[in-house]
Amino acid sequence: VEYDYDNDGIIDKNHFYQAFITKLKIGNYFLTRDGRYVGAHNALLPNPINLADFISDNQLTELCLSKKAFIAANITTRDEAWSYLTDEIEVEEFTSENLAESISKRPVFMPKQEDAWLHRLYSFLKEDAIKLWRPNPMFRKQQNLPFRSCPIIKTSKGTFVPPYKGETLNVFLSSISTDETLNIVNPVLLENNTTRQFFNELGIKEVDESVYIDKRIAKYTDQREIRIDQNVEDIEQFYIYALKVPHDKRNSFIQKLRENLTIQCKQGKNVIFSKLSDVYSDKWVDTFFKGCNDVKLLSVASYASLFDKYGKNKILEFLYEIGLRENPEPRIEQHSGY
């Protein structure tokens, strides 16, 4: 190093210091946990330090998309060395927020991790990153809770999903439903007490049957193509739910069905799906509708299994309640010239 001197012939200490800092920045002087030495641009300080307990250098490299490693020294933000390394040497820190962001941006990362590692992640979140997933009721303004929208929960299908979508729970502990659109926590994970406690604190719970019902209704809201066997199954589930839905929720449930549900009917020689409000039952088919090819009539044969199982009158009463037309409206004939 070439030194600068002041007017008195004394070495300029600031110049010496800056030369020393530059040397540290470009050389491989930082010891990692596996005994290697890396440069400042490849070294990372874990914040909090417990991140280094379960994230390996290989995982860190995959998360950061570059060759990175945690410094071996147990340095925390309370140590003077932390400020020195981050401010002077420009060593970067890797935070819990960085972990959430990296997992969200790299969907291939989580499926590679074993269950044992997932338990360590959940334990870390439960103990050391509470502020990043649990809302603080004292704050009304929007809070930074990245792990609520981060795909960290392993489902029964082996996929990873975020615990919440917006304010809506996106994954459940279990369900009696066979609806494959519901995300259910992988049951193997629940064998770990700490993981189960974390899920409970995160607000993950048993599926509410109303959620399951709303998902069935959503198929019609989205105007998806529905098979008749799916439609029959849906109507059966709606009928069963209508018998036990709480009184204060029944009106809104019935209204949703009136607005969205379609049913199979006959219009002349065609078999189609239509809103219930446009469809008549077969009650007066021979009296009023014989030979009418433009009228939509309930396809009785399509729902014969429900009629046999629960009784035709009971199913029809339910269908009338949610919009099926029972009696034809009288037509007012227009006459001219008396």
Task: Give a description of the structure.
It is built from twelve helices and twelve strands. It is of the alpha+beta class and about 350 residues long. The strands form five sheets. Strands 4-3-5 form a three-stranded parallel sheet, sandwiched between helices. A three-stranded antiparallel sheet has the order 11-10-12. The chain has a two-stranded antiparallel ribbon with strand order 1-2. β1 (about 30) and β2 (about 35-40) form a beta hairpin. α7 packs parallel to α9 (about 245-260). The longest helix has 17 residues, at about 230-245. The radius of gyration is 33 Å and the shape is elongated.
Task: Please give a handful of descriptors for the protein shown.
338 residues; alpha+beta; 3-stranded parallel sheet; 3-stranded antiparallel sheet; 12 helices; 38% helix; disordered C terminus
State the gist of this model.
The chain is an alpha+beta fold and 338 residues long. Helices cover 38% and strands 12% of the residues.
Topology, element by element:
Blueprint (H helix, E strand, L loop, with lengths): L12 H14 L1 E4 L5 E3 L3 E5 L9 H8 L4 E2 L9 H9 L3 E4 H10 L9 H14 L24 E2 L5 E2 L2 E2 L2 E2 L23 H10 L6 H13 L6 H17 L2 H14 L1 E6 L2 E6 L9 H4 L7 E3 L5 H7 L1 H10 L17
Parallel strand pairs: 3-4, 3-5
Antiparallel strand pairs: 1-2, 6-7, 8-9, 10-11, 10-12
Helix pairs in contact: 5-6, 7-9, 11-12
Strand order of the largest sheet: 4-3-5
Q: Mind telling me the C-alpha Rg?
A: 33 Å
Sheet/helix structural class = alpha+beta
Counting H and I runs of at least 4 residues, what is the number of helices? 12
Shape: elongated
Q: Mean of the pLDDT scores? A: 86
